Each structure stands twice: as structure tokens, then as C-alpha cells.
Prior knowledge:
By secondary structure, this protein is an alpha+beta fold. Helix content is 28%, strand content 24%.
Amino acid sequence: xxxxxxxxxxxxxxxxxxxxxxxxxxxxxxxxxxxxxxxxxxxxxxxxxxxxxxxxxxxxxxxxxxxxxxxxxxxxxxxxxxxxxxxxxxxxxxxxxxxxxxxxxxxxxxxxxxxxxxxxxxxxxxxxxxxxxxxxxxxxxxxxxxxxxxxxxxxxxxxxxxxxxxxxxxxxxxxxxxxxxxxxxxxxxxxxxxxxxxxxxxxxxxxxxxxxxxxxxxxxxxxxxxxxxxxxxxxxxxxxxxxxxxxxxxxxxxxxxxxxxxxxxxxxxxxxxxxxxxxxxxxxxxxxxxxxxxxxxxxxxxxxxxxxxxxxxxxxxxxxxxxxxxxxxxxxxxxxxxxxxxxxxxxxxxxxxxxxxxxxxxxxxxxxxxxxxxxxxxxxxxxxxxxxxxxxxxxxxxxxxxxxxxxxxxxxxxxxxxxxxxxxxxxxxxxxxxxxxxxxxxxxxxxxxxxxxxxxxxxxxxxxxxxxxxxxxxxxxxxxxxxxxxxxxxxxxxxxxxxxxxxxxxxxxxxxxxxxxxxxxxxxxxxxxxxxxxxxxxxxxxxxxxxxxxxxxxxxxxxxxxxxxxxxxxxxxxxxxxxxxxxxxxxxxxxxxxxxxxxxxxxxxxxxxxxxxxxxxxxxxxxxxxxxxxxxxxxxxxxxxxxxxxxxxxxxxxxxxxxxxxxxxxxxxxxxxxxxxxxxxxxxxxxxxxxxxxxxxxxxxxxxxxxxxxxxxxxxxxxxxxxxxxxxxxxxxxxxxxxxxxxxxxxxxxxxxxxxxxxxxxxxxx
Length: 766
Ligand code: MOS
């Protein structure tokens, strides 16, 4: 008996009749939960998949954007006359061009900026744009535009931005909104009750999403109708934004994003480049392709904000937490964003006395955007190291300390029950599979090379939910078409969706054709982000397939003259449960043959009320540190994840390994470097900005899915995975290094320069 079957026996989940409209939980599955190669694997690896970057249209022009070279400057004059006359130039756009005076980053009716703003508040802000016959002619034309700038004093550091007399990024000063605070219990008396207290300040520099495919769009007009191919996480939100800024009906805007080469949150926001491509295309009456050079992607398309975090945690001798005091300062660049990080510190463990304070400041740098679990990896880096340090001081095993403080409710508004919380199981099963006890007890080595193991835990907040609408069509030959609006941002969305159709209808996987991510031809879905694509959209896919089956069974019931409730669909055959010789093949259902198609529409139902659903995770790693060079090498990594039911084990594991890889980058290799004297980014390329490679990740990586369906949450029992997979990674590495050396690294990146420096300072060299 598998664990899943055992769970269902314990949970006594009744089997849902196949003819029912609202599907109950799956009791058994045949395809869902297995390991399936992506349905579009061939297209992706052969290069035949057309990403927006690959779109090439007849008569297409190439767009390019002129950007401000200063960290803070007023644009006094733009002279495009020479550029207009350059060979191949077909259009030049500035803020005074017709229809280009567009407000950008508005809040409560106030525009913080415009599409081309005369005040450029960071390096790389848009000043003008051109469209030319070739990309080279476009680049030449940019150089022919004469701009008179008045450079202004700037501030790029979060602490400096708070200082009196700091240059103001906006009129109202450098603090974004009000600092947000949270308080429960009495923190002072909690610390008074503590036997052990740890306190430390941690820093995490700015990280860039750095997706493989650059940001960009192709825009084409047919009369009043605009079609945009966009590398985006959500075609419907781009359609919505374009309709607003171009003052057009949504119906006249088609946004297509069949493939896209990664976003990690940086492609949730509609880009200025998309609007600029549309305006250039309208001005020239030609299609325009506008993709950003890599350097611009680094400077202007988002980042994970830099944070400075001070954590103080107190506990009783037995490990029971008594108080948490958490303060976070984050710099979000020049336009509104929330660089807060405190959520996980407030709710990961049971603690009666908690105080958090998050402050976000403006700086003269590229604006932050969501990046894989916004705020959470920064929090884990600080808070999960504090918990580890506490375990050290208490002389307790770090896994034991965490297990002692599991909360059985979400500590929000006095306590809200979880639909499911398997954090303790993540820690236990992860520790067992990793061989934690033995590895922790093993000698660290006495020579220059030391070994250590570390653990860190996490949860994630966005559970997913409605709306999502999906249509499944079954054709007369038994093949099917699945129509959904969700973008597959590289995670395998199309594949699990097809697997659900196969599960419910028996149509072979390769005979499920998928239409997706096209505002003109597919159903509405919210953007793929927040680790919510699976839990938001998979119940809608299932509901659509189940609706097709219900209609099909009704047709067969009429034909076979048996009650609908007596019929079941198996491998494209409809069979009577009471008399199995009464059956009909799907292709022999007369009404289907006459009608040609059965169409089922499925909707994502509401989430349950009065409960909270979070995915949980625990990650474990082993490192080897060379104290002479400061190099920390990852030997082993293990992710134990409670993300509800696993739909596709292959892409599930891929998410775990991909999340860990990004966490390795956050913890060990990545940091945006701004020049103090100029405010310009010094490492806006893949040579100087180090994303991790195959040589940086552990050669031995293990995914341990708990695979326990959260059937109280939705009809597929799924929770999110993409973001939880990256949250605890860096903290687990830091904790392993602390175990190996006794040295705690408070700042990312944990690289040889920093580690060798710390070791030398501690007199532990060699
Ligand atoms: Mo994610 S940061 O919601 O793509």
C-alpha cells in the first residue's frame, strides 16, 4: 500500500461517482503523480518552439530605447533631428510624440513618473526610442539623438537614503509609505522570560532575476487591432494594462505568450518596452520588434531588493521560543514597491511574543519587482540563521529545536487553522532521507578542509484560488483539445494540465492538444506567479474534463438505456458497472458522432473559508570549506517539500532543483554592484554578475516530496512549489558553513572573498 492509499483509507475519502459535476478528491490516480516528460519537450530542445524573441514578421522593424546614463538627472532637451535622417530609420519616439505622454507608476491618482519622464531617477530610464530597418541602424540612430542632461545628486544606499539631507528621490522623501509593523503578545516580557537570547544584523544585497530570454515584445497593428507577442508571465494582465494606457477596448488587443524564457517575477509587470513597441508600430504602420539588450535587462527590469535585517530571538532552556524582534530595511529603487521581509519570521514557528517592523526606502536605482518568493529568502537568511545560532547556544540539534516550535495554527488574528501543515514531517522525513543525525555527528575534520551540514525551513503565503476558466473539448475520434489562458513560464504547466485530461478522460497524453496563453483564443487566467499556477488552474482543468465526461456518460446512458450513475469511462470505453458486457466505445457514442464534439467548461471554485493554506519546506545540505581559500563547495542538497499532491514527479523535482539553484545564487554568487561615484551598475552582464552554473550546485541533489494531497483546499489537493523551493536554500548553506567552521556569515554572497576574510579576522587561517 502506498502512502497515498494509506492516507485515503485513514481519511475515508468517499469515491465520487464519475457522472458528478463537482469532482470530489481523487481516490486513486493512474497518470497524475507519475513522471512525464514535458509535452513540448521536443519543440523546446529542437529549437522549433517560437519564443517571443524568435517572432519574425514580414516588413518588421527593430525598435531600440535610448536610456539615461545618469543615476539622477533632468532631461533639458532632446534633439532627434539627426536621428530622423539616419539610414533605415522609420520612426523616432519621445514623450512629446502623439499619444506618448503616458502616466506610469500611478498610485491614488498621482503619477510617479511617465513613459518618458523628464526626470530620470535611475540609470537606464527611458528617454527616447527609434524604429529602424535593422537592429544596427536602430542602435546607430540612438547614438545620433542629442540629449542635454542636468545631472543631480543621487543616493543608492538604503541607510544613506534615510539620513537627514539625503537627496530626495521623490518630493515626499525617501521612505515609501509608512513602515509596516506587526505586534502580538509582549516582546519585552518574552525576552525577560528567555534563558538564551541571540541577536545579529544580516545583509543581503540586490539580486537580479536574470531570466534566459531577455524582456521584450513584438507589436503589430491591423487597423484598430493590436497584436503583441510578449515574453510575459501573464498575457491577460498585459492586455489589461495596454488597454488602459492606450485607451483601447480590451477586445482590440491580443497578447500571445506561447513560450517564454523565464521570468521569476520580473515578467509580472507590463514593460514600458511593450507600450513603446506598440507606439512605434502605430507610428510607422509596420510591425516592430523590441527586445532589450542584456545590460538593460539587468538595469531596469527588476530585482530582489537589498535588505538589512536585525533579528533578536529568545528561548527557554528547553528550546521553546519566547520572543522574536525583527527589523528590516529594504531599498526598492526609484519607484514604489514593497521591500518588506518579515512575514516568515512572524509565522514560521509558534511564538507568543513577536514584533516586526519593515521599512522600505527609495534609492536612485532600478525598481525592484517580485523575485521568486519576494522577501522570503532574505528573511530565511537572517531568521533561520538566528534559529540555528540559538540551537548552538542551547546545545540542541537544530532539527529538534525547530520541531519543538511547530505551530498548529497560523498565528494570525488569534489563530487560524491550516488545511494542512506538514512542516514537522518535512523536517523529519528530510532529516531521515539526508542521514542528518549521522552527518551532524561526523567529525568536521581538523585539517584546512572542514565539513558541515545545515538545515533551514520555510513556508510560503500565496495559496492560489479563483478565477480560472478552462475549456476541454473531446472530438469524435477520442482526441481532446485543452484550452487554458495560463502561461507556462518554464515550469511544465502544459504537461500537468494534459495529464489531468488524460487522467479523467483516458485520452492518451499525446492526443491532448493544448491552446494556451493567448488573450484572443483562450480562457481567462491570472498571471503565472506566486507559486499559484498549479493550485489555481489545475482544479479548473479537472472540472472541465469532468464536465466532458459527465456529458459523454449522459449520451451513453441514453444510447445504452441504463442509468447514468451505472456508467463509467475507462480507456475511452463506457462500461456499465452492474453489467460489464453493456458497453460502448467513445467513438461509437452516436450523439458525439452527430455533434462532432463535446465541450466542457470548468471553473476554479472558491477556497474554503476560515482556514489557511501554505506550502512548507525543509532543506538540508552538506558543505566542504577550504579555510585557506575561503571556498565553500556544496556536496549534497536535499529538499523536503509539502506542496500537497504531486501532479508530475519529473517537473516537481525540476522545480525543487531549480529553486535550490537560484537559492545558491542568492546565497553564494549574486549581487548587483553599483558604482558609489556614479550610481551606475558595474556588473550588468553575465560575466561579472555570477548566476550559478552546474559547477556551483551540489553534485548530489535529492527531492523528497511529501505528496500528501491537501484535499480540504481544492479538488486536486495541490499547493504551490516554485517559490518555497528557493526560500530556505541560502540559509541552509550558511548554517552548514557555521557547523563546519563555527563562523557565522551574516552577509550574502557567501563567497571566498568574504569567508577567507572572516577566517583571517578570527585568526583561524590554515
Ligand atoms: Mo513570482 S516572484 O510570483 O514569479
